[in-house]
Design a protein that fits this description.
Layout lengths: L20 H11 L11 E4 L6 H15 L3 E7 L6 H11 L13 H9 L5 E7 L8 H7 L4 E7 L2 H5 L4 H8 L2 E4 L5 H15 L7 H11 L3 H17 L5
Helix pairs in contact: 1-2, 3-4, 8-9, 8-10, 9-10
């Protein structure tokens, strides 16, 4: 029944992204300067839950890493790493620079100084759920470091701007904005069809069932993929052929 369980996970980044060509091209163009060793603008990616914000951000940065040798990427879930310290620590940890950092006693400014001294490859930092940060000043810390390109992911710009001070609001408003709408049922069907093609055995699910899932998910790709995963798992456990 299940050929590749990875494909059915919401965090899986496919080789091709369905129905987001314009957004992928926009974000790629924003990050393009770092391929030449130049600073890139901060990108703010917004849209409702399940619109593909995290997926396209990871897709674009992974494609960059495939094309350019001296570009790296790090991902921070700000829902989990909601403090300034934990966000900075996660970035430094991904860069391999936390060996002598003590979680209990190292001051925040020392973490910022360490990032400032980072002389490795240009790095794209994805801050997911950035509006959940307890102290949004960490965005200002990172915004001032030219060796890093920042992608801020949030559901709504207004919620993000309402939580930061005026000096950062003006910088964020002048950043590149990639806005995404929720998917239509036909688009969700295409996404589900691709996941079923690569993740499930052939002919185990009908087009009608995929459309029913798309309709039930109401524009949320994460929910649609979750329904497909749950249904496939249940059928597999009960030894059904379809």
């Amino acid at each position: 029944m299940i050929r590749d369980a990875r494909v059915l996970r919401a965090g899986f980044v496919p080789r091709e992204v369905e129905h987001r060509d314009a957004e992928v091209n926009h974000l790629s163009s924003v990050l393009e300067p770092i391929t030449n060793g130049d600073p890139a603008d901060t990108a703010i990616v917004t849209g409702p839950s399940g619109a593909g914000k995290t997926c396209i951000s990871k897709f674009v940065t992974e494609r960059l890493r495939e094309e350019v040798l001296n570009v790296e990427t790090t991902y921070v879930n700000c829902w989990r790493n909601y403090t300034r310290f934990r966000t900075l620590y996660q970035i430094l940890d991904d860069l391999g620079a936390t060996i002598d950092i003590h979680r209990q006693s190292t001051p925040h400014d020392e973490l910022v100084d360490r990032l400032q001294q980072h002389d490795g490859p240009r790095t794209v930092i994805i801050l997911d759920e950035v509006d959940q940060l307890e102290d949004p000043s960490v965005i200002y810390d990172l915004h001032s470091l030219p060796q890093f390109a920042i992608i801020c992911i949030a559901n709504k710009e207004e919620e993000l701007f309402s939580r930061v001070d005026d000096r950062l609001v003006s910088r964020l408003r002048s950043s590149e904005h990639v806005r995404m709408d929720k998917y239509h049922d036909e688009q969700l069907y295409d996404i589900l069809s691709a996941r079923a093609k690569w993740g499930l055995d052939e002919d185990v699910i009908t087009d009608d069932q995929l459309y029913r899932i798309a309709d039930a998910a109401a524009g949320d790709a994460r929910l649609a993929i979750g329904i497909l995963r749950t249904a496939a798992g249940k059928a597999d456990r009960e030894n059904h052929e379809r």
